[in-house]
Amino acid sequence: MTFATGHSIPQTDPPRSPRKTLPTMYDLPSEQVGEPGLPDEFHDLQPQLLSRSLQLAAYTRDEWFTGADLNLYYDNQHPNWYKRPDWFLAVGVPRLYDGSDMRRSYVTWQEPQAPHIVIEFLSPGTQAEDLGRFYQTQETEGRGAIATAPNGSAPPSKTEAEPPPNKLAVYERYLRVPHYMVYNRQKGQLRYFQLIGSQYQEQILSEAAPPLWLPDLQVGLGIWDGQFEGMPGHWLRWCDNEGHWLLTDTELERQAKEAERQAKEAAQAQIMQSARNLLATGLSLEQVTDLLNLTIEQVAGLSQ
């Protein structure tokens, strides 16, 4: 059996499993020569904030994977077809590929689950591809709003090769991603498309916190006005069911250190209060220092 990638594995009788006969991430390219990288700093920082603030009550950290600008292969009949979501989450999968290697790409037919959430960050050059049939544009002659073609360009002629579908079609029909969001940073606008039946239906966000709640994952999403990695902005960020922002790993570590510092200060203050109380009973400095394992210098000031 030979694939379009040039990947060839002989079949056996009985047939080997698709896991062994279809291309893996080691067989498929992780990037194409000349393909543009991340367009700006926001596209670098925003996925980090999403990944680093995500907390899932039903899954340990080793049971979900997040990818950003990573090749996502979705059709084993066209193994060279892929999309590069700005950010996605797959749950119920090991964080490492086969539990041992960092992923070069996400090959859905080699993974136990397709992505559960996909988020795209809109820009003028990508919004037609990202929004598919939900995108409309004004013709320059002002003849009214028209929907773009399914792949964001003119329909191919019958003589042309079959074009790959746009992102929305891939997430909706091929992968059946339950939750698809797009975020327009310039407008501060978040849009949410939920897979209902076989199609996405856009959902109205709540005016109360959280604006978007995902009951199957018990996590919310909203727009946070704050500073991340020293950069101020309006960021997508996860929250709990009351709208409280979930902390990043760095913030959790900082919080733990601050709690530890406060606990030490409170314990020290309690010891010093005990020293005052013992001195008030008439015990000498030496007796108090021996009882509380303090130095003379620490207790001396208390007796003045």
Characterization of this structure:
The model is unreliable at 137-159 (pLDDT under 50). 25% of the residues lie in helices and 22% in strands. The termini are far apart. It has helices at 18-21, 41-53, 127-131, 167-174, 249-280, 285-292, 296-300, and strands spanning 64-67, 72-73, 82-83, 87-91, 106-107, 117-121, 136-138, 145-147, 179-184, 189-196, 199-203, 212-214, 219-228, 231-239. The strands form 4 sheets. It has a 6-stranded mixed sheet with strand order 1-4-6-9-10-11. A 3-stranded mixed sheet has the order 3-2-5, with no helix packed on it. The chain has 7 helices and 14 strands.
Rounded to an integer in angstroms, the radius of gyration calculated over CA atoms is 28 Å
Low-confidence sequence ranges:
137-159
The oligomeric status of these chains comes to single chain
Helix content: 10-25%
Gist?
The chain is α+β, with helices and mostly antiparallel strands and 304 residues long. It is built from seven helices and 14 strands.
Task: Break the fold down into its secondary structure elements and pairings.
Layout: H1 18-21, H2 41-53, E1 64-67, E2 72-73, E3 82-83, E4 87-91, E5 106-107, E6 117-121, H3 127-131, E7 136-138, E8 145-147, H4 167-174, E9 179-184, E10 189-196, E11 199-203, E12 212-214, E13 219-228, E14 231-239, H5 249-280, H6 285-292, H7 296-300
Helix pairs in contact: 5-6
